[in-house]
Amino acid sequence: MAVAAQHELVAALETGDFARILGTAETDELEFKQQPYRITERLQKWELAKDVAALANQRGGVIVIGYRTEKRPNELVDTVLEHREVPKDLVDWRAYRHTLQTWVHPPLAGIAGQWYPRDPAIARGVFVLIVPAQPEESKYFVVHEMARADEAFPGAVGIPVRHDDHVLWLQPQAVHALLREAFWWRRHGPAVAAVAGPDAGQRDAAQRIRTRCEAIEERAGWQEIPFIALHAMPEALLPREDDFYAENGLKGHIANPPALYRHGFNLLTGAPAEVQRDGSIVSGTNRRLLWLSPDGFLSAAGRGDEDFFGWFFNQPGRRAHRFELEGGYRVLPGVLSVRESVPQAAVAYGLGAVALARRFRQARRCCASPGLGDGRES
How many Å apart are CA 151 and CA 171, to the nearest integer? Predict the structure, then answer.
């Protein structure tokens, strides 16, 4: 027995197959309770608000009242063990809705309740509180009060998020990152909107790469230094991640990217990650640089000389294997398709669109890395 998803659960309840629910594991969209919320008690009002807001901050779900759960040995989550019908007069749906209206902000959309069996003449049954998926622009939903272990309410607020069979609270550093971003957006919002507008993902890839290369050149002071830049660009505009500006999120990863050998060849710049006026994040020095835009456009660049690509130049005979670059940026496009369901993107050699860069006043020489021509003249 057991059901695996919300629609299967509703189908079983609609047909009166209550036993089919037995053995069902709680998930991030399925919550089971043996007894209704005692809505006359302040702590129970908080429990209701917390459980519903947590589902709303995830992808929605249902709270099913009328089943007993237990975490069995060697199992990771609670599972349904017993069906226990609930007297209908114990659920005051009007009080439930009023509690959610006063304890959760912003207002929740589409909250509904349903008894099974549906026949109003039947005095007992299973009550299902339905929390539809909420618009992303409405998140996060905040619970107006926080309950301490002694059941006191100190006047704090919290942001609960459903995770598997339990509720997690958004950590202080994550809340701070969201607030800091909101204040930053208030000051610089128009500039960000102009750059990361709805057409950002549809711009010509080569032109966007050239524009990024010009910005890299100015940022790193490479006006007279050849450099190589790898770019990864989504085919369509990506939604910005909630932790984009968090120190333990994407901003932190730009400042401290993974490296197999931290003292060898890697993209670790050693510089702090800084937010730019267009909302992008940059970490770089005059040797190497990482640049990430909110829509997922990522660039990694390094000097094309002995200072950064010394591992290449120091090999015997490599100094003789160079090629000439005329003025401007040369973009080498390519296509990489992992599987049919993956959108094709502007990539080369499985790494991204590669821009071999420098605007030379006269022909200059730049090293060719082993993956980009193997040292033969171009």
Answer: 21
Q: Quick: pLDDT tens for 231-290.
A: 888 776 666 676 787 777 888 889 988 877 666 667 888 899 998 877 889 999 988 999
Let me know whether 279 and 317 are in one domain.
Answer: yes
322 pLDDT more than 50: no
**Between 372 and 78, residue with greater pLDDT:** 78
Total count of domains within the chain? 2
Q: What is the mean pLDDT of residues 110-120?
A: 94
Residue whose entry in the numeric block shows the structure tokens 């003449």? 121
pLDDT of the residue at 325: 40
Predicted pLDDT of residue 352: 32
Cα(28)–Cα(62) distance, rounded to whole angstroms? 10
User: Could you give the 3-state DSSP secondary structure of residue 292?
Assistant: strand
140 prior amide bond cis, ω within 30: yes
Q: What is the largest CA-CA distance in the chain?
A: 92
Question: At which residue do the structure tokens 């309740």 appear?
Answer: 113
Q: 181 lies in a domain?
A: no
Q: Which of 67, 57, 56 is nearest to 34 (CA)?
A: 67
Give the pairing type, strands 112-116 and 79-83.
Answer: unpaired
Residue 228 lies in a domain: yes
- Beta pairing partners, 69: 80
Residue with tokens 């006359």: 40
Q: Clarify whether residues 146 and 85 are in a common domain.
A: yes
Instruction: Estimate to the nearest angstrom the gap between the alpha carbon of 44 and the chain centroid.
Output: 32
